Amino acid sequence: MEPIINNNEIKDLTQTAKTNDQALINEPAKVGKRKANNSKQASKVKGPGFKIRLSSAKRGRNTNSNTSTKSAPKPRQAKRKKNNSAINEKDFDIATNAIQEHINLLKKPENPAEIYLSESSCSEVEPETSFGSQLKNWPRKNSNLTIKKICIHESDPPSTANKSLERHDSAIQTDPEVQHEFHSQILNIQKTSDEDSEEELSEKSSSPPASDQFTDYAKQQTEDAKWINTKKQLENQNSITVNTGQGPILKIFYVDFDLVLCQELLVSFWYQSAPGNVLGAQDMWTSKGSIQRQPMPNNCTLKESLEMVACSYFSLAYIELWTKEHENYQQEVPVTNVYAVVYFWMKQYNGSVKKVLQLGNINGFADDIQYSIVKSSPKIVVSWHFTGNEMNRKKTYVYCYQVASDFQSICNVDNFEAVDHYVSSLHNIEGCDTLIMGCGENKITLWNIEGGRLAATIEMTEIKSPLATLWVKCDRGFLFTLQQCVDRELRLIAIHSMNHSWKRLASYKPPLVYDRLKGVCVENGVVLGFYDQGIVCWNAKTAEIVVENAGRTETEYISGNYLISVAGNEVNVQHAFISLLKLGYWN
């Protein structure tokens, strides 16, 4: 009797097992069935979008006695774990029908779909049939399956869709790793229901197409979001109103489009929008918040300064300096406590907060203490005068206190070089962030903010009266300052930065009825003086009075080049030159 399986067929089957590198289901088969199965080297399940190659070759022990030991090598399946489960024809038909139903869904041109052939998604699906269980437990060595993606859109014609499926089919057929791992994808296809397909289709139809139109769509969405935010800001804008129940107004500062309104019991922060600034509108302000003002204890003194606000993009702070004297029985001068009360708004807090910081104790009188706030950073520069008994020694000490970024503490203290003269005021310099100026007697002193080094001391011997600085600016190597003397005269002085020489450029004398100066504005050849009795405008070069307007009834505050007027409970902020246009006297 001739053997059913010859030696060449056994070699072919062994080579096929090595190529697939997978353990097939071992089942003792009859000789008659084995001949029928060996006639089919590879049975295929075909579809428009998928090709699954199922190898029907099975490795088993040859029981034919006529076959020699050399032609029938020892089977390798004995070393592997046997799988006693079998695949019946009924389960195979169920899986084939499930694949065909899913393929039919892809054929419909009105239903675009995306199929992700992902191995991870298959492990999450529990098989419903014994055939699915066989595939889940199929031994696999190479688990790195490349994700294949098939995308069909409604706009694609049927021919284009079929071509894309054919290309994907050929890729699966030629790739041995994909053939090896593709059986597990049946689980994902088998569990796909009509409801899941409808949800996927609805998501795809609502999203923009993956093309250049997506860029236009994203830009449009960004523009819409910006407009919504701008609209919300415009809706929240309103006029600045004074709460009369919080007491009278003490201070108003306007710095870099931020306004600080300080009343007796309340401190509020406001911001002027860009359209409001260009249009000069008074009803386009945005409130940043308000906070109750700290009650001042007994025997405390509030120090005055022209600069009390530090602002940046992320924060806005209004800083007051409080002093309190204590008798010192060991010395002739008292001991004075110095406190900084910080009212601030921060972007990260989205609200207003206050903090009391103790700067220290000094040996001196509270009246001799001066301070200024550096606008560009939260630094508090404090000076005080000390007179000793030894050889009539006089000194003015200057300290710079660096406030932390969260305004909760003092993070650094710099000791500036002391001077021998009395300093009556401290000032920021417009156009120069590295220097701070001290003015007193007939001297002007400049310190470097970083480190406290003494930069220069300019003594004006021709000016005998004490100086009060109203305005200072640095411009291309020259320092310009406007001083007020005891005789109410205003003097414009220029100082050379290299040799520290100085010159009086002009003197401005107000009329007799103007006796209390609130602020000045110097710009473009014009000097404006704001008094309680009215406004006086001089020509900066000739010192002639150009405009004089007495009898103004509105309460006005000066902050830089801006005039802040309060009429009733409304606050209006406008440039100082606008007041000249409203007077009608400008030629």
TrEMBL record:
InterPro entries: WD40/YVTN_repeat-like_dom_sf, WD40_repeat_dom_sf
Residue ranges, annotated region (Disordered): 1-89, 192-214
Signal peptide from the UniProt entry: none
Polar residues bias spans: 1-23, 62-71
UniProt protein name: Uncharacterized protein
Organism: Ceutorhynchus assimilis (cabbage seed weevil)
